[in-house]
Every structure is written in C-alpha cells, then in structure tokens.
Design goal:
Blueprint lengths: L1 H13 L2 E3 L5 E8 L4 H10 L5 E7 L5 H8 L3 E4 L3 H13 L3 E4 L6 H14 L3 E3 L5 H13 L5 E8 L9 H12 L22 E3 L2 E7 L5 E9 L2 E7 L8 H13 L3 E3 L1 H4 L4
Parallel strand pairs: 2-3, 2-4, 4-5, 5-6, 6-12, 7-9
Antiparallel strand pairs: 1-2, 7-10, 8-9, 10-11
Helix pairs in contact: 4-5, 6-7
Bound molecules: NADP nicotinamide-adenine-dinucleotide phosphate (NAP).
The site of NADP nicotinamide-adenine-dinucleotide phosphate has 25 residues, from helix 2 and helix 4.
C-alpha cells in the first residue's frame, strides 16, 4: 500500500503518465540503447502496446539529463553497457522514472546503490540479467529437479558474436543447481583419457558446462540430468530477441504500479 502511494506521488511530481485520445492512461517509457541489438527490438515492441507510450530512445553521446527532462518517462529501460547502465539508471531515478535494467555485468554494489536510490525516491525498479520468461522458468524447473538426480550437465548455445563463455545464465544455473545439492554434491565423471583438451567442458559445482558458439543461434540452454536408466532434459530455446519483450513489459507494468525493487525476473514472477 505504501508503495502505491509513493508511486502515485512520483507520478504527480513528474506527470509521467499520459492519456490516449480514448482516455486510457498510458505509461511513458524510454529505452537507453535503442539502436542496439536488444534495445531496437524492445523499442519496436513497446510501440505496439496500448497501455504504453514509447517516448523515445537514448544512445551513446546523447544528453540523458536533457532527454529525461524533456520526455518525462515513467520508466527507463536500459540495454546498454555495464559501464553506462548504473549512471543511466541513477539519472532515471533522480528524474522520478523507474529503472528497468537488462544490461548485464553490474556489480552487487551497483545494484545495492540503485535499490537505495529507488527507495529514497519512492520508485520501483528492477535489475534482471535475464528477461526471457522461458529462461527464468527453465532455471526454476532445473532447481526443482536437482535434488532428485545425481549428475547434471549444461549445454549453452549462443550466436557467434558472444564474447564471453560460458554465458552468465549457464554459470548461474550451475551454481544454483550445486547449491540445491549441499548435502550430497553432484557426481562429475571426468574423462580418464582426454584426447582433446577441454572436451568435457568447464566445471562449476561438479556440473559440466559446455559452450557452443555458432551463427544461427540466439541464446539457448539445455540442462541435462542423469540417473541410471533415465535422463531429464530441460531446454529453453530463443528464436529471436523478441524473447525479451514480454518480460520487460511485465516489469514495466509492475514496477510503475508499485515502489518495490526487484532483483531478477524470477523474483518478480514470484518463483523464489
Ligand atoms: N537481461 C537480458 O535479458 C539481456 C538479454 C540480452 C542482452 N543483455 C545485455 O544487454 C546489454 C546490451 O546488449 P546488446 O546485445 O543489445 O548490445 P549492443 O547491440 O552492443 O547495444 C548496446 C547499445 O547501447 C548503446 N550505448 C552505449 N553507451 C550508451 C550510453 N551511455 N547511453 C545510451 N546508450 C548507450 C550502444 O550505442 P552504439 O550503437 O552507439 O554503440 C548500443 O546501441 C548487454 O549488457 C547484454 O549483456 C541482457
């Protein structure tokens, strides 16, 4: 209840909601990184939503403070770079806009700073390393399976342009799965004779992680569990960057309606 009151106060302060000709109140949303691979898809996606007014995007070299002052967004979605995201998000909060940060690589201290700023201003916000609803559910379902299988391996498959390996999602999945096996760690079968170095993949918490980098993929991941006589595969496939649109829309609607700060889409989906 407090959150709703606080959010309403900010709206009154910024005038960041607008009404359509039919009288429907819309949420004014801007995108930082609107020319990027994800940002451009989001900018398109936002423009098709009746309750959202896309007020524009901001790119490298643009004056963010002036943009926020002029466009008065109620939410700023950020898919830029780790070095820029915190600065953008804090500027948004200072202007009374909710930060919705998809940019990966923020430190825990950065996220703490943003949460503190959001609370002080009475606006909601979210930092989520994965806005694909299916990917978040894949990890949740793998968490459920982990206690029941003695071995697990992860195969993640991404586009050839991805710089890091393994993906943050794969690493975080392996850590979560290992944490579910505290009393009885997973077994990990090493090759007795590895004739090609690295063939068994990396390893985190006794979970082997294999990274594939090929043109044609966007971002896929399979978690394979094994027990004698059976395997269980939980797989998430992304066919385009539109995969991030539903999760971002969900976040926009949620964080502009209340003043809560979320760490991860799973928290927002109440999966924890
Ligand atoms: N949370 C998720 O679900 C999720 C999913 C996919 C990707 N990501 C993350 O999202 C981020 C962007 O990914 P991407 O693939 O879209 O990268 P990208 O194609 O390189 O796009 C980044 C965009 O940010 C712009 N930019 C750089 N500095 C800026 C600033 N100071 N203010 C505003 N815009 C700025 C860039 O502008 P220029 O074009 O001028 O360089 C570029 O358009 C990465 O951190 C990635 O890991 C998150």
């Amino acid at each position: 209840m407090d959150g709703i009151v606080a959010a309403a106060t900010v709206e009154a302060e910024t005038g960041a909601h607008a009404a359509t000709e039919s009288g429907q109140v819309t949420i004014r949303v801007a995108v930082a990184g609107h020319r990027g691979k994800v940002g451009s898809v989001l900018a398109m996606g936002l423009q098709g939503e009746p309750d959202i007014e896309y007020v524009g995007g901001i790119g490298r070299g643009d004056d963010l403070a002036e943009f926020l002052h002029e466009k008065r967004p109620r939410a700023l979605v950020d898919f830029t770079r780790p070095s820029e995201a915190l600065h953008n998000a804090l500027a948004a909060v200072a202007a009374g806009a909710s930060p919705i940060v998809g940019t990966t690589g923020l430190s825990a201290t950065d996220v703490d700073k943003l949460e503190t700023a959001c609370k002080a201003k009475g606006v909601g916000g979210i930092v989520a390393p994965n806005f694909a609803v299916g990917a978040v559910l894949m990890m949740h379902l793998a968490d459920i399976a982990a206690p029941h299988f003695d071995a697990a391996e992860i195969i993640e498959l991404h586009h050839a342009g991805k710089l890091d390996a393994p993906s943050g999602t794969a690493l975080s999945t392996a850590r979560r799965l290992a944490a579910r096996r505290k009393d009885k760690p997973f077994t990990h079968k090493r090759a007795e004779k590895e004739t090609l170095a690295g063939t068994r993949g990396g390893e985190e918490g006794n979970v082997a992680v294999h990274s594939v980098r090929l043109p044609g993929f966007v971002a896929d991941q399979e978690v394979i569990f094994g027990l004698p006589g059976q395997t269980l595969t939980i797989a998430h496939r992304t066919t385009s960057r539109e995969a991030y649109v539903p999760g971002v829309l969900l976040a926009i609607r949620k964080v502009t309606a209340e003043s809560r700060f979320y760490r991860g889409l799973d928290e927002l989906l109440d999966l924890r």
